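Notebook B, p. 112. Complex prediction, attempt 2.
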Amino acid sequence: MAELTLVEAVNDALHTELARDDNVLVMGEDVGRAGGVFRATAGLRDRFGENRCVDTPLAEAGMLGSAVGLCMAGWRPVVEMQYDAFSYPCLDQLITHVGRYRWRSGGRMEFPLTIRMPYGGGVRAPELHDDSPEAYYVHTPGIKVAIPSTPADAKGLLAAAIRDPDPVVVFEPKLVYRTARGEVPEGDYVVPLGEARIAREGSDVTLIAYGAMVPVCERAADELDVSCEVLDLRSLRPLDEDAILASVAKTGRVVIVHEAPRTAGFGAELAALIAERAIFDLQGPVLRVTGYDVPYPYWTIEDQYVPSVSRVVAAVRSLF
Amino acid sequence: MAELTLVEAVNDALHTELARDDNVLVMGEDVGRAGGVFRATAGLRDRFGENRCVDTPLAEAGMLGSAVGLCMAGWRPVVEMQYDAFSYPCLDQLITHVGRYRWRSGGRMEFPLTIRMPYGGGVRAPELHDDSPEAYYVHTPGIKVAIPSTPADAKGLLAAAIRDPDPVVVFEPKLVYRTARGEVPEGDYVVPLGEARIAREGSDVTLIAYGAMVPVCERAADELDVSCEVLDLRSLRPLDEDAILASVAKTGRVVIVHEAPRTAGFGAELAALIAERAIFDLQGPVLRVTGYDVPYPYWTIEDQYVPSVSRVVAAVRSLF
Amino acid sequence: MASTDALSRFASEGIGDADLLELYRRMVLLRTYDERSVVYHRQGRIGTYAIFWNHEAIQAGATFALRDEDWIFPSYRESAIGLIRGMPVETVIAWWRGHPSGWWSPADWNVASICVPIATHVPHAAGLAWGKKLRGEDAVAMAFFGDGATSEGAFHEGVNFAAVMNAPAVFVCNNNQWAISTPLEAQTRAETLADKAVGYGIPGVRVDGLDVLAVFAAAREAVERARSGDGPTLIECVHYRAAPHATADDPRAYIDQARVEEERANECVGRFERTLLEAGVLTPEHAAAVKKECEDLMRAGIAAAEAEPAPDPELVFTHAYVDPPGNMRRG
Amino acid sequence: MASTDALSRFASEGIGDADLLELYRRMVLLRTYDERSVVYHRQGRIGTYAIFWNHEAIQAGATFALRDEDWIFPSYRESAIGLIRGMPVETVIAWWRGHPSGWWSPADWNVASICVPIATHVPHAAGLAWGKKLRGEDAVAMAFFGDGATSEGAFHEGVNFAAVMNAPAVFVCNNNQWAISTPLEAQTRAETLADKAVGYGIPGVRVDGLDVLAVFAAAREAVERARSGDGPTLIECVHYRAAPHATADDPRAYIDQARVEEERANECVGRFERTLLEAGVLTPEHAAAVKKECEDLMRAGIAAAEAEPAPDPELVFTHAYVDPPGNMRRG
Ligand SMILES: Cc1ncc(C[n+]2csc(CCOP(=O)(O)OP(=O)(O)O)c2C)c(N)n1
Ligand SMILES: Cc1ncc(C[n+]2csc(CCOP(=O)(O)OP(=O)(O)O)c2C)c(N)n1
Ligand SMILES: [Mg+2]
Ligand SMILES: [Mg+2]
């Protein structure tokens, strides 16, 4: 066990997986010579060569589109999108091809590619360095989505994504890239997709979150006098519905937290799941604390936008 | 009043709005010489000239990106995407610019552009002619979304979209382009965004739908012995929350129907709204009847995918 | 006429009569597929169909330069190109019937899936070619797309990727001068589409898209260049769309029919046939036999396609994931 | 040196000393803005900042060919280009401080918003130029972007649109030969970036990006071409990035510092200053006065930016819509 930051854990996973499987290849903008703008791919080019850690032209659709072709040639590409909002040019390839090509092949070809990107706000950056695009990805059939909140999960979920036979998108909470530190198992380490983590046991209310909102919920739990269960989803598809329903059955109260805009965000899916499958367990409304349906704001006021401990606390209090 | 098909009503709206405002301009692939692959833009080029109804190069991002520039030059562009799935290349411009540019200008510039496209399945077409992408659009801040189900609304909502000072996306249900016929007011006719339509009054259960799923819900209501209220949203953003909550308060039972994949589809937002604001009105779970989280299937079995009358009927029955 | 000289030139290069007759057979096969399909559509036996009449010289000529290990990336306009590799006629017909038996595995034929969204397969070809090269495998990727496709960002990003990666790719542009109803001059201001190669630092060539031997010669050179490690080539095959875009389309609204008639009079299969007859490579009997063989193939193909049992509704779910999420079936 | 000849040539064309001194002032203004900003960043007074040191000749030279009614479409690399139009220093500083007062209306200055996502503003420039032309208004659009930007589909689609629409647009590529850590040869295989113009059927020119007069001359020709209805031009301004990509970047990992030192020795502002001094157009006193004036402007600017009251949190919602949906504030 080594104590690593979240971004170091990502780097560790990439080193481990490239060493483990010669078919794994990392590609993206500035991943090679520079080792990534967040250093997530540091050391890969020196260790595995420029053909296993490739600096591509500046073209996200070209990156993802050629990754589809790489899969056809037997590779398992790991594509880095430099930032959340800079992944949007690749959505066309994602929706029209990445999510459909296995289906198109009558199930006889696999497209085991991974897309990973830093996401989320709070980093005092110019616009479009703060987005939380997970809903665009998780709404797309054929795609799986994972979002770690701890260094150990950052390693384990990325390893699971790279080994998964289907396309997986991993969103890494850049806000805690360097501040989240924790014990990370060395060498082979996989956290299976689809298993939520109970970040904190509780009995009065369930806080459901992922990524950088997990620590926010934990801090809110500290402030609250009621007993909060904090559920860290870790994976949005596959989704650990049992863990959600079990917790709701126990507490009867739910607050869902994410940074993305509210309308048709993933929180809506969680609320819908609960409204369909756990309606009679509920002792109150299913609340969401989310980003607003407005462009991500100027960073001097971004704290008004990103769900805060106090907004989560207020939502929980309103349930009692 | 003339009796028109839905696509004729779209064409009528375009003729009316281009005649009404010299700043309105229609652009897209094959909208000019051919009058659109569905004839939605027929006659515009002859009547208003090739500069008011422009055949563009085959480039959706280029179309929407230049429409942003056209707005800066004082135009009100109406951009046709030839089919739902062929709009995906424009998502980057939509998310990074169309939804944000007014904010970026400190509210001092307007981007009154309209995107319109045929959407939805059931038309026995090759793949990617069947998608229901509304969730990608409605999740995007700064964008409004309207979806008509009748010829009159197709005209009135498109007119409202073109006159609206904000960017509006109008999805036209291509399945009923030529089969939905109805009285359409001649000349100036606007259906305000944000007002749902009660397609049928009822007291036992509320069926919420839009576009081509409205007639499906109406047929289901015919088959059912319980009294169904069918709510045609007409506009997803702005959303007529009062109409939804009023109907749920009356019936206490809800079935939401859309063609798009289920996960994080707009139905999730509707269920989440109800779970948050109407939880104590509910006498049963909030159900969704939707497309599945898989690629839209081969057309010989697409009827297994698109919500059918019998699936809606079964969902309603399960509530009693 | 030039083509007979071409024949002797090819002969001197070892392209013998057998090869020419095989090339002829492939053109006839494609032509027969296309003409029968239009009839099948009229009879309601297949859905909307993208007609490739008079595009056969491009499709047969370009792929004639490939080996079986090379990959083909077709657009909807090249839907039947797999026939050249021996793909069963019923497979392609089934695709146009929306029947699951029409979905093949690219790995089975080294023919990628029919690409419906314009130009989005161009980066796939770049990636496949690059990926094969990285593995030290000797395979070339050949992508087909139209004149309109060159306006898409996906074309630009894909060709640039291939060029930068020095990938063994050949980009074949079917310049039929129309994108549905949009003429070439509304698509680009460039003198030629081959000019676009300059911006990627790769060779661009322009050939008569109705001269199968000219297309083949250009493709052969491009494939050799790719194989020998010198990177991609862009080939512009110039002709003029002499049929509707698809069965649903009525071009009379926008194309001058006189021009279309001219084009039809000079159609590529008959042109090659005349050349071969003239050169004594082909006899009328052989030509008739080839046509008969292809018609029989089609007859058997449509019969087989129509004999397919109705698809299992379960197929809505079967192929979405290797390892499907639990809630996939909820709807 | 060539530039002195250039001066006389310009003089004969009516570009007099006053113009040259104004051009010099603009370069010094941009240089001062950039150098002070790096200091402000170190002092924690602005956020991450994209350094444009030694890009001043491109920005000042190209825009010197514009009239006030012409539009400028900057990338983050041209964040301060509005200063040339008289935009207050504090506005640009505020942008880098993430303060709402840094967001101007493009219509106020005919300067579009700073474009952060690479190349996505290229189609905006095409649309603006096309739209102005449709209205019969005489305005040219000039877009700035980097070498890396030419790999994006948005660049391709935007330039092609402008070419097809014969729009009065000028595309200025700042080829500093690096996209963060990615060198030009990993971005394109083309001989030059100006070559890309061929594929769009428009003129492409290549100039020394450190020679402000060469950039101005090329821009002036392109602007005249656009204004006279002959369509867009692509101008490649070649130099070499002699500073980090941004304050957050450490180029020592990937750029040879010796090369950077060479470049710095030949930086563009000093070069132009020497030319003007040599030609007797500029005196050391005047040069000193200009620098002082620019430093004062910066001092006033940062003071004004820092004097801005903390933004009203309500601004999270204010500008999203003209006519906001009712649920906008729910979160
Ligand atoms: C991304 C995308 N946009 C639009 C369409 C609709 N569409 C189908 S074919 C076509 C024209 C294509 O023209 P071209 O590239 O010249 O190929 P051709 O049909 O002439 O072979 C269009 C616009 C599509 N299939 N994909
Ligand atoms: C679409 C998009 N992808 C990635 C980025 C991240 N990024 C910021 S600057 C940059 C390099 C740009 O290089 P170039 O176009 O040469 O311009 P320069 O920075 O050299 O002026 C990258 C990749 C971005 N801003 N937008
Ligand atoms: Mg064509
Ligand atoms: Mg650069």
